[in-house]
Input
Amino acid sequence: MNLPASFIDYTRALLGNEEYEKLAAALQQEPPVSIRINKLRMKEEGVSSLTDSSVHFSFNKVPWASDGYYLDERLTFTFDPLFHAGAYYVQEAASMFLGQILRRYVTRPVVALDLCAAPGGKSTHIRSCLPEGSLLVSNEPVKARAQVLLENLTKWGHPDVIVTNSYPKDFARLPDFFDLLVTDVPCSGEGMFRKEEDAVTGWSMEAVRMCRDRQREILRDVWPSLKPGGLLVYSTCTLNALEDEENVAWIAEELGAEILP
Output
């Protein structure tokens, strides 16, 4: 992988030489493959039955996700009937950390919005983590992607979910409505470098700054729909401070949020 020179310079300055070299080495490796079990479809003790399908487990659990498992290899999941039945979802292990946040801070039934939800990994996870009696509105602004989202949530099988196809500003017409906002915003995608060549070739500091500004616009548009005292989860699949730490500071300073541990 040939990383852009400006990415190397920025990230080395951000992390320091030692940590940057660890990251650079990791980016040359194949990413691990992980899945998350749907406990609506399969009880924990039934996980071993998956070894009779086309999915073969290493049985190494994802430490921060009780229903997450690493696989020995990446398979053609579309050949597995259990995948189509919604028995599991193929998801990056890092994304599963969302469950830790929800289990810590969401302890009663809520009305939740997953704002940028396609293809559905986080929405299926959110719905699995929310207390019974909760309602999840799973939204995707792009119509074609919203259809994929609808299909994946239908396979997952939880009834208390609504799929919408709206822009963030549309939700401002529901002031103080949601107890929980999950905003996995469009980003520069540095976390996708190992999986998508286009993520590397399309990267630039200009694109990073454009993403940062777009993320702030999205957050500003949807913020009025969050109840006072509600929970905002902000996440990206990128590594730079402009889209991550600096945006979190902006949310606190400009929107008046309190940063939680």
Observations:
- Residues 194 and 216 are 27 Å apart (CA to CA).
- Residues 205-222 form the longest helix (18 residues).
- The mean pLDDT is 93.
- The first strand starts at residue 33 and ends at 37.
